[in-house]
Amino acid sequence: MDKFLLQQQVLERLVEDLLQVEQAVRAAHETATHEENIAENKYDTLGLEAAYLATGQARRAEAIRQAMANWRQFRPRPYDASIGIRLGALVCLVDSDDKQQQLFLGPDGGSMTLVSGTQLVQVISSEAPLGRAMLGKCEGDEVSMQVAPIRQQFEVLRVL
After folding, report:
1. In whole angstroms, what is the distance from residue 64 CA to residue 33 CA?
2. Which of 109, 89, 88, 104 is nearest to 16 (CA)?
3. Using CA atoms, how far apart are residues 38 and 76, in angstroms rounded to an integer?
4. 103, 139, 142: which is closest to 123 by C-alpha?
């Protein structure tokens, strides 16, 4: 798998997300400022609610812009077994049911799934619980984390 191509996919997805959020900001702003939505009494809150929504969407747009800047500056390095897993690693984990998952440890963008060939690759940050648990681990090491009352355990199969 090519980390550069995965990075480009992340940036493309972030651009798409930004366009959608900016459109939502414009729509919420138009609703908040439209003359028909001026409050006539204290219970008429449509304009106020739309203003709150526009503010939240604007914050989301700024977060996406920051994620894009982080990904543009990001330069994943090859895996070094003497250092272990670090930011930029492409990791294959296997659980106790022999189910494998591919993870790309990036500077941002959790919950983003990419496609590389026929495989799905989950993007996670080093701030995510699983990302933190993998840092410094090497091939063959066990990674475990607590999720509510359940302890999940994985083995590191491969790292690129």
Report:
1. 25
2. 109
3. 51
4. 103
Grouping H, G, I as helix, E, B as strand and the rest as coil, residue 129 is helix
User: Does position 31 have pLDDT exceeding 90, yes or no?
Assistant: no
Mean pLDDT of the chain: 91
pTM of the model: 0.86
Give 3-state DSSP helix, strand, coil % of the chain, rounded to 5.
Answer: 40, 25, 30
R_g of the chain, CA atoms, integer Å: 21
Over residues 68-89, mean pLDDT? 95
75 to 97, 99, 106, 108, 127: CA distances (angstroms):
34, 29, 10, 13, 18
Whether 36 has a pLDDT exceeding 90, the answer reads: no
User: How sure is the predictor about 46, in pLDDT bands with cuts at 50, 70 and 90?
Assistant: confident
Average pLDDT over residues 14-21: 96
Phi, psi of 85 (to 5 degrees): -65, 135
DSSP one-letter string for 27-80? HHHHHHH-GGGS-SSTT--HHHHHHHHHHHHHHHHHHHHHHHHHHHH--PPPP-
Element (H, E) at 14: helix 3-33
